[in-house]
Design goal:
- This protein is of the alpha/beta class and 149 residues long.
- It has 3 helices and 8 strands; from the N terminus they run βββαββαβαββ.
- The strands form 2 sheets. Strands 1, 2, 3, 6, 7 and 8 form a 6-stranded mixed sheet that branches. Strands 4-5 form a two-stranded antiparallel ribbon.
- Strand 1 and strand 2 form a beta hairpin.
């Protein structure tokens, strides 16, 4: 499982031109489900994301987590995070989870994030979405549950 986590002052998901969900200060989390992902991968990404100390404290040091600042999470499925572009110019998505299983894992990830008591909003799995965000910093962190980077 891979995640791209961006600290934002606001973020919004639109589907067919209509706002589906939006957040204020918090994290935009783009989540890619890989073949073979399990509850262990979900827990790693959820715990790491919620514990990341990437918000500034009173001394302007990144020392606070999303929980510390009372922020929100916008969690959006994005299979293209598993794209492999090392060969040629057209990415291969063979490591991305098959849609039926990936949806099941994504739904479980949403539930894991909801259990943290952080306000969590989502996109729609497999929908064509437009995502707008105001990056704060900018601060962007990459996570991989298999610790490939």
């Amino acid at each position: 499982m891979r995640a791209v986590i961006t600290r934002v002052t606001s973020a919004e998901v639109r589907i067919k031109g209509e706002t589906y969900s939006q957040i204020g200060r918090g994290l935009l989390v783009l989540l890619g489900v890989q073949q073979g992902d399990t509850e262990k991968d979900i827990q790693y990404i959820c715990e790491k994301t919620c514990g990341l100390r990437i918000f500034e404290d009173q001394e302007e040091k990144m020392n606070l987590s999303i929980q510390d600042v009372g922020g929100e999470i916008l969690l959006v499925s994005q299979f293209t995070l598993l794209g492999d572009a090392r060969k040629g110019k057209r990415p291969s998505f063979i490591r991305a989870g098959a849609p039926i299983l990936a949806k099941e894992i994504y739904d479980k990830a949403v539930q894991a994030f909801l259990q943290t008591n952080i306000p969590v909003y989502t996109g729609v799995f497999q929908a064509y979405m437009q995502i707008e965000s105001v990056n704060d910093g900018p601060v962007t962190i990459l996570l991989d549950s298999r610790k490939l980077f």
